Amino acid sequence: MSDKRISFQVDGEVQGVNFRSYTQKQARSIGITGFVRNTSDGTVQGEAQGSADQLKDFVQHLNTGPPAASVSGVMHNDISPKSGESSFHVK
In whole angstroms, how far apart are CA 11 and each of 19, 65, 77, 87, 89? Predict the structure, then answer.
């Protein structure tokens, strides 16, 4: 099965609550690659790549977030897969 890639944005109280490290941990446990970063508008954004099932699991984790987070919405869109990426990291 070929990999898919998504871009994502998470809205709510998601900065200053370990959301990026939580996201990295979940991504690595699922086995997907990509990145996550804070933005100046208070959201968390990133990209993730893996199988359709892996990405479905990952988006569920984004909707939950770590205990201190309050997620009000998650948007994601399909984008072109990237080659040569070997891990998921925090920017």
Answer: 11, 11, 15, 24, 20
Of 5, 20, 63, 77, which is the active-site residue? Answer: 20
In this structure, what CATH number is given to the domain that contains residue 59? Answer: 3.30.70.100
Is 18 catalytic? The answer is no
Active site residue 28: no
Which residue among 5, 18, 37, 38 is the active-site one?
Answer: 38
Judge whether 88 lies within some domain: no
pLDDT tens digits for range 61-91: 999 999 999 999 999 999 999 999 999 999 9
Q: What is the pLDDT of residues 40-68, one digit of tens each?
A: 999 999 999 999 999 999 999 999 999 99
Q: Is 87 a domain residue?
A: no
**Domain total in the chain:** 1
